Amino acid sequence: MEMPGVAAGVALALILIIVNLAGQCSGQLQFGFYNGKCRDGNGFQRNVEDIVKQKVKEKFSSDTTIVAALLRMQFHDCFVNGCDASILLDVPNGEKTAPPNLSVRGYEFIEDIKTEIENTCPGIVSCADIIVMATRDAVVESDIKKMGTGWYPVQTGRRDGRVSSAQNVNLPSPSIPVPQAIAAFSSKKLSTIDMVYLLGGGHSVGVAHCGLFENRLYDFKNTGNPDPAMNTTLLQTLRTLCPRNSGSPNSANLDQDPLKSSSVDKSFFEQIRLGNGILEVDQQLALDPNTRFPVARIAGSDDFSFQFGRAMIKLGAVDVKIGRDGEIRKKCAAVNSPSRSSGGNFFNLFG
């Protein structure tokens, strides 16, 4: 049984890793970057992270699926040209139009948060930072025990990118072999352990539609048989859910524990060790020699929130833009006009 002091202990531990991570993160990101920088029209100081937190809390109360949506959005944004909110841009042939991003959602919610902040202190907070802050707060809201153990500190100070191209979108597929996945994460300076936590944590919530795993049910790798790694009970359940060649729009929870499928926790790792992985790459995490031992350790540990938070901090630092490399967009879906893009509040924030 967890004691009340556990949440405080985890929070303290996460704060202590800041010193260790500071030298690893890109550019000039800072913890508490916006402290003292946001003042409303009456001159009163506002806490940017509190504004985001409240918006997420309100959203979560009516839509718990926002947790999976934001985790996916941050991953898809950071993995393509870095964490620069380029996925939010509505431009011809932009990242939004790439096949892996067609099911990404939450754009309107991020724009809603941006509008709230712009109405309070315009030209200060980037859309890229809003994605990262909102994702963290959504993870916290998903904690079914409401003890705050999902909290982790986020660095801020990112600038928004000005370019978004579908051609740049090269994300790991649901069937990517683990060694190739490791290489993909390594190219972003993320370790194998980071990958295990990010994939497992990100897939501890949300669903996958039949089309993403139907091959595992009937004709795995052209064998004419199901994936032998799949639990036979789960196999029968999924075959009922997704009849062969039916084009079914049905979906299955990525975490097969019915009591924890909406919470970002270690349950996913326990499930894949039982053969209950939905996506091929998820199940292979528990089987591949590069990752099966970390998966086993995580499933039996009590420090998932700490380690997942650490991995999310590193993900949030991938190829960030700072200073004149980017801008503070007025609206998240569009780049600023040339006059605004060239300066904005650059000297207020960096001078």
Automatic annotation (TrEMBL):
Keyword DNA-binding: no
GO biological process: hydrogen peroxide catabolic process; response to oxidative stress
Name of the protein in its database record: Peroxidase
Function: Removal of H(2)O(2), oxidation of toxic reductants, biosynthesis and degradation of lignin, suberization, auxin catabolism, response to environmental stresses such as wounding, pathogen attack and oxidative stress. These functions might be dependent on each isozyme/isoform in each plant tissue.
Residues reported in the UniProt entry to bind Ca(2+) 2: 257, 265
One Pfam family linked to the record: peroxidase
A GO molecular-function descriptor: heme binding
Leader sequence segment: 1-27
Binding note for cofactor: Binds 2 calcium ions per subunit.
PANTHER family linked to this entry: PEROXIDASE, PTHR31517
Keyword Repeat: no
